[in-house]
Amino acid sequence: MAMHDVTIEKTILTLLDEKKYQTLKDILVTMEPSDIVAVFEELKEEKVPLLFRLLPKETAAEVFAELEPDWQELLIKGFSDTELREVVNELYVDDAADLVDEMPANVVKRILAQAAPELRKEINEILRYPENSAGSVMTTEYVSLRPEMTISDAIVRIRRTGVDKETIYTCYVTEARKLIGVVSVKDMLLAQDDQTPVSQIMDENVIYVNTMTDQEEVAQMFSKYNFLALPVVDNGGRMVGIVTFDDAMDIIEEETTEDIEKMAGMLPSEKTYLRSSALDLFRNRIPWLALLMVSATFTGMIITGFENALAAQVVLTAFIPMLMDTGGNSGSQASVTVIRALSLGELEFSDVPKVIWKEIQTSVLCGVALATLCFAKIMLFDRMVLGNTDITLTVAFTVCFTMAVTVLMAKLVGCTLPMIAKKLGFDPAVMASPFITTIVDALSLLVYFGIARAVLF
Amino acid sequence: MAMHDVTIEKTILTLLDEKKYQTLKDILVTMEPSDIVAVFEELKEEKVPLLFRLLPKETAAEVFAELEPDWQELLIKGFSDTELREVVNELYVDDAADLVDEMPANVVKRILAQAAPELRKEINEILRYPENSAGSVMTTEYVSLRPEMTISDAIVRIRRTGVDKETIYTCYVTEARKLIGVVSVKDMLLAQDDQTPVSQIMDENVIYVNTMTDQEEVAQMFSKYNFLALPVVDNGGRMVGIVTFDDAMDIIEEETTEDIEKMAGMLPSEKTYLRSSALDLFRNRIPWLALLMVSATFTGMIITGFENALAAQVVLTAFIPMLMDTGGNSGSQASVTVIRALSLGELEFSDVPKVIWKEIQTSVLCGVALATLCFAKIMLFDRMVLGNTDITLTVAFTVCFTMAVTVLMAKLVGCTLPMIAKKLGFDPAVMASPFITTIVDALSLLVYFGIARAVLF
């Protein structure tokens, strides 16, 4: 199957309209669950239950798990108890827990009534943990082995229990529920003698996370160690579940989107862009816009304070946007670089002196280069080409000197604020461009008018 | 082993100084390669070869593959031919290809001289493909099966050849080198009868990528389908390699960092922040700073054009920063949201009308809210508390009306430019905040002075 099938979505929608159900079944059986989910996203509400009933048994639960909550709710409301039981008990435990977490109370009641007792217990187990903790994203379906088992015993066990497990390739060796080792199917398959006990080939240096570990840290460990799964252990060292690499990829994507949204002065969104209503977007965007607008009162007050000076030298006003934008851009370059390095774990608070020194050097280089370029631009273009005779050498000097100082201040504010935020336990991403721009605006205007007053009046 | 071992790095550095080599060996054997790499990053140059020689044989190549290029070069220069041969031939093919790609010519010559002929051929194969293509990031070490093999034959084959493969869990079924199916070790282990031919249990609907597919697209497919590995196929449909999930995670991290850097008006960096010199940072940051500074000439010209009006109503100047910043913030909210949605594959060019409509609604909501808040702030705080009597009702109206129009323009420019860039084949991330701020500044000033002229003079 080709990798991009925008047209297959159209074909399916057409076949659905034409009620060619057998043909649809034949097509659906060849498709990956994720591609089927993409078709559901294009579907009108009334067609959703219809298409779902045409899915092959094996993929139905997998597709269901990936659907958006509103489609899930719609489907459940249309399910008979038997249908609901079939779907729910086919779900992986972590997906079932997500579902219970997202549905309204009356739907949850029906789901739990149809869930097998064991599944119900495990769903409740997972929902006990706080949001975004390893416990809340783990699944309780993993292969556990005892240390005295031989490799051949272990393989028999995997064959017997593996079909329900989210991964069989990494198996966990436990003794009295304590995690004591990890062994991969690769190690077992490649071992010379299948009568070797598991305890002899297992790796005892197990990397694990605690149930309360933040999901972002869990995801970082995946990109560091390249594991297929990480075991989750409670405070007593007892193994309670695993997080798998595909969940880690989802977490990384979600956390990165959240970081990017915060950096652009927005609250993190719950839904994808196309599924967000204008009201959702408004709610995410207005708080920072309003806060930053009000805080621009300071810049306004600074300008009002120098109103008489400005009235005498109106030419100074023309350079305010350039100084402010360059300050904002310089600051956000530094802050965004530092925020990204923090979230990739490349920087720690102890690196502050190194970071500040690096940014000072960089801002001197940038400041001198920009000031020189700016001086040339002002004298050659603004003064000579445009013939603006208000621009004296002193004015040009004032602007260019302010430019260099602004770049320095912007880069220092930009690199330090995120690190301080992190140290104080806030999210550094909030200290990105918009916030820093407001501070740098005020600082650069103070410098500008300060120098202007000293030199020009 | 605990998950965070900042102190173990210190212990190792101390033991190295004290020449306690046997203790070091005992510690190193319990450590994960990635954690050992973290120790190398803290090391002084002269200690690098020493610590490397203490590594257990099994992990040495894995650690070597993850080191920064400067440490790799240093080590190779110190290696005897025998040592070099051992390390190079232990590397996975894709890591060996990366190494050859990054080392200077004289080092490459030595590496290729020590590489086994088969490895040399495969390195050259991978290096033929353009940078960032699937061919350039794939590995040629995968398990291939023939369709007529039984499951038990297949397992024998995996046992015999698996030790060198990057993953054994997904096996590819080929016929005359053409990829015809995929089968997982899980399917084979869980099958009832191990005399079943592979062709009966394999999945014939294989999702694959072409050697020339861009790595970003490859990575997106991993987060969509949750595969352990994706097969790479040439234009003739012949299987040439696989990309594994851990490489996909690295690609996602790298591409996201690049996007974030571009959004903040920087050229993408080659090195991590702490390894970049001030000169590296300067080179990445100055082009956009300089370009944006020069383009602020337009805003300057607009202000100069209205100089006389401004001189008569200096009070207008005080609101320029607030209008500009709010415009910039509104625009970057829209552009960053759209850029992220584009890079996650949630948006396509055909969605332009939907996006524009959504942003119009959102900006009307934001614009009205901000204008109202702004009006209250100006009349209650600026005029009454601060007692600025220059602020008349007409001035307040001019500012607030401009505010609403600016938000609308900013959001429209912000959402459309990235989509147009994508359509034209440019990277949408370049159309982020700094670029849009410059455009929105000019537009908002034109509106501001336009309204002021109509209303105030």
Question: Can you describe what's shown?
Answer:
- The structure is a homodimer of 457-residue chains.
- Chain A is mainly alpha-helical.
- The first copy, chain A, has three domains: 127 residues, Alpha Horseshoe (MgtE N-terminal fold), CATH 1.25.60.10; 110 residues, Roll (CBS-domain); 161 residues, SLC41 divalent cation transporters, integral membrane domain (Tetracycline Repressor, domain 2).
- Helices cover 65% and strands 6% of the residues of chain A.
- Chain A contains 23 helices and six strands.
- In chain A, the strands form two sheets. Chain A has a three-stranded mixed β-sheet with strand order 1-2-3. A three-stranded mixed β-sheet of chain A has the order 4-5-6.
- In chain A, helix 15 links the parallel strand 4 and strand 5.
- The longest helix of chain A is centred in the last third of the chain and has 34 residues.
- The mean pLDDT of chain A is 88.
- Chains A and B meet through helix 12, helix 13, helix 15, helix 16 and helix 17 of A and helix 12, helix 13, helix 15, helix 16 and helix 17 of B.
